[in-house]
Amino acid sequence: MLIGTVVLALTAAALGFVWWPLALIVVPVLVFLFAFFRDPDRAVPVEQMAVVSPADGKVSDITEVENDPIIGGPAVRIGIFLSVFNVHVNRSPCDGKVIDVRYKTGKFINALKHDVVSDQNESNTIVMAEPNGTEPVVVVKQIVGLIARRIICTVNVNDQVKRGDRIGMIKFGSRTELTISKKLQPMVKCKVGQTVKGVVDVLAMLGEPIHTTIPASDTGTEGEPIVGRTTPA
Questions:
Q1: Which end of the chain is more exposed for a tag (fewer CB within 10 A), N or C?
Q2: What CA–CA distance (Å, rounded) separates 157 from 206?
């Protein structure tokens, strides 16, 4: 945001030197810049069985997976498309421990083409186990799109996260996938085409709870703003 502001200020100065009304062209661009990088605090649902949305956007697909290669068994996958107008901060869908973070290079196909982007596009996969466990039960996958070219991940292996904690960001239009192991007996509570908000909306209720001793997150105590490790450009 700082770099963008400086660049736009210099652009406005140059345009204003030619003809001052031209400097006003940068105003809507600056407004869009600040709107895109907004990072609002939100109240986190306290239901133990709730799995919340890891991103803002529109549910594009819900898929029953017979044998997910990361989960190591049957799972349900919920895909969310993020437009350039959505908040792009990713949040943890539940309490857990990060047991793996996998960055993969790839293409920049339009994120709306969910049937191909999951495997072919550049992505970052965050694998989570129960806070005191070792087996993967939940996966959050950050996937770039046609415009998005940068993934930020702020968690590392062995980090303990709470439901609603900030775990990363995808800059500009993109896709986020949430995969839940069938061992947790997830009951999907969203539908394709539904607009969801990160943390606020519950995507699934679990029949088998995630065992944790981590206190639930509260607004204002849910983690620091987006800083930290960044995946390669």
A1: C
A2: 24
Q: Chain-wide mean pLDDT for the chain?
A: 84
**Crossing angle (nearest 10°) for helices 2-18 and 26-36:** 170
Report yes or no: 170 and 86 within 8 Å, Cβ to Cβ: no
Express as a percent the part of the chain with pLDDT over 90.
52
pLDDT of residue 212: 63
Give the residue numbers marked as catalytic: 174
Distance between CA atoms of residues 139 and 227, nearest Å: 21
For residues 148 and 195, which has the higher predicted lDDT (pLDDT)?
195
pLDDT digits (tens, 9 = 90+) for 117-126: 888 888 999 9
Of all residues in the chain, the percent with pLDDT exceeding 70 is 85
Cα–Cα distance between 137 and 94 in angstroms, integer?
10
What are the two backbone dihedrals, phi and then psi, of residue 110, each rounded to the nearest 5 degrees?
-50, 125
d(CA 186, CA 207): 6
Helix (H), strand (E), coil (C) string for the chain: CHHHHHHHHHHHHHHHHHCHHHHHHHHHHHHHHHHHCCCCCCCCCCCCCEEECCCCEEEEEEEEEEEECCCCEEEEEEEEEECCCCCCEEECCCCEEEEEEEEECCECCCCCCHHHHHHHECEEEEEEECCCCCCEEEEEEEEECCCCCEEEECCCCCCEECCCCEEEEEECCEEEEEEEEHHHCEEECCCCCCEECCCCCEEEEECCCCCCCCCCCCCCCCCCCCCCCECCC
